[in-house]
Amino acid sequence: MPVEEFVAGWISGAAGLILGHPLDTVKVRLQTQNVYRGIVDCVIKTYQRESVLGFFKGMSFPICSVAVVNSVLFGTYSNSLLLLSSTSHQDRKAQPPNYGHIFVAGSIAGFVQAYCLAPFDLIKVRLQNQTEPRARPGVAPSHYRGPLHCARTILREEGPRGLFRGAWALVLRDTPSLGLYFLTYEGLSWWLTSDGKERGSATMLVAGGFAGIISWVVATPLDVVKARMQMDGLKQQEYRGLLDCMVSSARQEGPGVFFRGLTLNSARAFPVNAVTFFSYEHLLRFLS
Ligand SMILES: CN(C)C(=N)NCCC[C@H](N)C(=O)O
């Protein structure tokens, strides 16, 4: 089992995460809170109330967990592809990719990583949604004082299952969208690289960026449902399940609700995933 795929996945994921977190915070708030008139309004209110630090709420935990999550994603993808096509990362560069195998391996990786990601993502979303300014004397503290306090509080208030709120929506979001993610990356990389040549840095950046945009466009409707399910239960429980969340969100806010955060998801997807694939490929070359 190629260990370097796991290591490269971890480091590249951390690089992408730091780059995209501020936009991710704005997106999560727009998807779950009906108090903003749009992206600019949310950015201004966040800055005024919480300063620039508000955009980085909930980032420390994903920086640690990305080690697990991204190495599981890239490691499972690469090893599933190895099983399906019996070719290593090096051999695959010399022959045309089998797109069916790539989609299936990406979907398996998406399914597996969604389960690892679920509790970390839930904690990130809960912390990102705390709009109180930093704790000061005389100002009421936030419900959660940090990632570990958040995990402990969820366990106490909602039980162990509380940590997996929204996990099904996450699995449904990531299984097909990650199949598409790797399919787009491999397809574009193959198309942009002349026969017999090594994949170039510009190719990695462009293919990674478009893989991010296409997969996030497809993933956004379930991303909205996932974020709402994850916030459900904090005050009271509003939804009876995934389907109920979809139906009542559409009834109350119209079908457009499923595209909330689409612009931000697409805007952050290009740089985040360009950097992720670029560092992943270069780290793999360096490690193997
Ligand atoms: C559509 N989805 C869920 C994905 N493409 N996921 C994989 C890329 C994740 C990357 N850290 C990002 O946040 O874009």
TrEMBL record:
<dbReference type="InterPro" id="IPR023395">
    <property type="entry name" value="MCP_dom_sf"/>
</dbReference>
<feature type="transmembrane region" description="Helical">
    <location>
        <begin position="203"/>
        <end position="225"/>
    </location>
</feature>
<feature type="transmembrane region" description="Helical">
    <location>
        <begin position="98"/>
        <end position="118"/>
    </location>
</feature>
<dbReference type="GO" id="GO:0005743">
    <property type="term" value="C:mitochondrial inner membrane"/>
</dbReference>
<keyword id="KW-0496">Mitochondrion</keyword>
<dbReference type="InterPro" id="IPR018108">
    <property type="entry name" value="MCP_transmembrane"/>
</dbReference>
<comment type="similarity">
    <text>Belongs to the mitochondrial carrier (TC 2.A.29) family.</text>
</comment>
<keyword id="KW-1133">Transmembrane helix</keyword>
<dbReference type="InterPro" id="IPR002067">
    <property type="entry name" value="MCP"/>
</dbReference>
<keyword id="KW-0812">Transmembrane</keyword>
<protein>
    <recommendedName>
        <fullName>Solute carrier family 25 member 45</fullName>
    </recommendedName>
</protein>
<keyword id="KW-0999">Mitochondrion inner membrane</keyword>
<feature type="repeat" description="Solcar">
    <location>
        <begin position="97"/>
        <end position="191"/>
    </location>
</feature>
<keyword id="KW-0813">Transport</keyword>
<dbReference type="GO" id="GO:0022857">
    <property type="term" value="F:transmembrane transporter activity"/>
</dbReference>
<keyword id="KW-0677">Repeat</keyword>
<keyword id="KW-0472">Membrane</keyword>
<feature type="transmembrane region" description="Helical">
    <location>
        <begin position="55"/>
        <end position="78"/>
    </location>
</feature>
<dbReference type="InterPro" id="IPR050567">
    <property type="entry name" value="Mitochondrial_Carrier"/>
</dbReference>
<dbReference type="Pfam" id="PF00153">
    <property type="entry name" value="Mito_carr"/>
</dbReference>
<feature type="repeat" description="Solcar">
    <location>
        <begin position="3"/>
        <end position="83"/>
    </location>
</feature>
<feature type="repeat" description="Solcar">
    <location>
        <begin position="199"/>
        <end position="286"/>
    </location>
</feature>
